[in-house]
Amino acid sequence: MPIITRLVQGKKNPNRVNLYLDDEFAFALSIDEVAKHSLKKGLELSDDQIARLKDTDETEYVYTKLLNFLSYRPRTVKEVRDRLYKYDVKEVDKQNTLIDKLQSKGYLDDTAFARWFIESRNTHRPRSKRYLSAELSAKGIAKDIIQAISGEIGDESETIRHLLNKKIGPPHKLEVSEKQKIVGYLARQGFAWDKISEVVKNWESE
Question: Does this model's pTM top 0.85?
């Protein structure tokens, strides 16, 4: 059986250890995995042990890439699963193992993502509840989560008023062309026609 002849700490990443079998580089592992498996110079490894250790190495590599993927902004479980396919991790069991690990450490949380997404939209790009719910659903957020936090989306009447003030200034009587333009814009944000009509009418009369 192959014998471990060298264990060399990584230069670029000191937390990684390069493992040599019969004086040839075989693969790298984290220091924790080396300690966990009691790997040391002179230890013989079976083909099955080598295969499992290499699989561990590949899993750790993908996990590190996922942490980088998550560092830019919150993600959903669906987004992470889609990313795993791009990393050529297509076995559902392996995907679930990585996802479970991220969730257990608090790096992946669909409810937290939904709250972050709603807050971001409310601040920068206000939308109707229907529009936001559809966006969250498209990102893989479950219906029960969307329903549970729907109250955080905000009052639609206030959102429409905010958009009116932002787009066309203080309340005033709108010209026909101006009204058509703003009503069309609000409709594209997912607001219902009756709600738009009601709020615009009250806004004009202020």
Answer: no
